Amino acid sequence: MSDSSITKKALADALKKLMKKEGFDRVSVSDICNSCGMNRKSFYYHFRDKYDLVNWVFYEDLIDRLSVADYENGWDMLYDICSKFYEDRVFYAEAFRIEGQDSFRSYVLETLRPMASFFLEGIFPDRGEEDYFFRYFGEAGLFAVMCWLRDDEGMTPEEFVENLRKVFCRLAAAVTEEKR
């Protein structure tokens, strides 16, 4: 592992530890640096701000390890994503509370969009329909993930993804039935 990767990982571990204890809003860059024995200059060499660090954690934990070619369908990929969220649920539940211009939710949607597009390609021949579907159902699905992380401690990733799949499939079936 390069020195840069070691530094980033140390900052990320410090952020995770602090977020679990104090919440994102109460954690400062100074707190992160003090927690891992680094100076602010090192932090700002690697990250623009603490929001950038949260996004980097998500990218490193998940996105960098995912390849759509490894999956038969989007549900299997969603299961792997949810499994990682579940594994580090306190951190991710807190990250999803970040609102505003630098919201974590927006970053997750933007980052997952190309992957979702791969699985939606054959379903929506019109790119406009695909964009519309992803914008609304992506937000709905992500909201469900956020609620699950925050509220449904007993539900495993398998159960959650299966429940979400059932909801979307039943909704699609109802819409199809209406059109007949």
Q: How would you characterize this protein structure?
A:
The chain is mostly helical and 180 residues long. It folds into two domains: 3-49, Arc Repressor Mutant, subunit A (Orthogonal Bundle); 62-179. It is built from nine helices and no strands. It has helices at 3-22, 29-36, 40-46, 50-61, 74-87, 89-95, 104-120, 127-151, 157-179. Helix 1 crosses helix 4. The longest helix is centred in the C-terminal third of the chain and has 25 residues, at 127-151. The chain is elongated, with a radius of gyration of 18 Å. The mean pLDDT is 91.
Q: Please provide the ordered H/E string of secondary-structure elements.
A: HHHHHHHHH
Distance from N terminus to C terminus (CA atoms, Å) equals 58 Å
pLDDT averaged residue by residue: 91
Overall outline? elongated
What are the segments in which pLDDT stays under 50 over at least 5 consecutive residues?
A: none
Number of helices: 9
Number of domains: 2
Q: Provide the structure class.
A: mainly alpha
Please state the CA-atom Rg, rounded to the nearest Å.
18 Å
Helix content: over 70%
Total E-strand runs:
0
Beta-strand percent range: under 5%
Describe the main β-sheet briefly: none
Brief overview:
The protein has 180 residues and is mainly alpha-helical. Helix content is 74%, strand content 0%.
